[in-house]
Amino acid sequence: MFDAYAFERVSDKRIVLDVAREIGIPTPRQVVLCSRDDVEAVTTSRVPGSALIVKPSRSVAPPDGSGVVRANPRAVRVGTPDELSELVASTPEAAFPLLVQEEIPGVGAGVFILMDRHNVLAAFAHRRVREKPPSGGVSVCRETGRLAPDLLEMSRALLEQLGWRGAAMVEYRVDERDGRPVLMEVNGRFWGSLQLAIDAGVDFPALLLDRVEGRPLPPLPPQPRNVRLRWLWGEVDHVWARARWPPVGRSGLAEGLAAAVDVLTPSRRDRTEVLRLGDPGPFLRETGTRLAGGVRRLTRRADARSLR
Length: 308
Hints:
D-amino Acid Aminotransferase, Chain A, domain 1; Dna Ligase, domain 1; alpha+beta; 11 strands; 4-stranded antiparallel β-sheet
């Protein structure tokens, strides 16, 4: 089922957004920076809004002379022209082109799809409840969402136009100003919130394996289970980020307390992503790694103060 050309296209956000615009799917307004010299092209008249999101077109840089593939920087939110200029100036040349997009206020939503040419073999929707950073990023708490027919059709049409076969996640942000789903990107691989779909009864890895090996697909549940999945250490990061970088007009203490209340309010639908009673090893390893990293940071700070 693997198609290298389709994978290259799906992995490039610039190509994905260009194709989406051609077939009428809403996308963020953006300016493409092909080099550091292009930063002057970003003006409020072309990309309006009080804040901008800057992200590389691809998640990894092309191999360098030694054949090494390096991860590109993650998406960053900037609020002033000076912040944008500083960010662009410090970005490695290999990370270009950069996409400078308007910020879309709202919540994240994703459509998970298993495609085979023109056919959707399985589909599932999720809604992001909390993210890190809170303005938009990795989901740390997400729940089963309603699979709206128009959203599914947009996602199917986009993947078909890109020639995609296999599993993918089509990511949107639902604009709180008008309720429109705005396309963000396509993950042409298994995604971070995959466990949510599995817990809800749609096991994409098993379905993909059945398809590749020519077995008939098992019947899917008529309605996925209503599940809310939580990444516990990710939620700690979410609370810390809201307390440290509160929105304009909010104190860090008030925002941190509000975030803590959100995180500590349980639901009967809750499941934990990493901590599983039948297999606690991954959570213990993650916890050990986090604590060791915290100790190293404290040690470096103490050493730095002692040298002053």
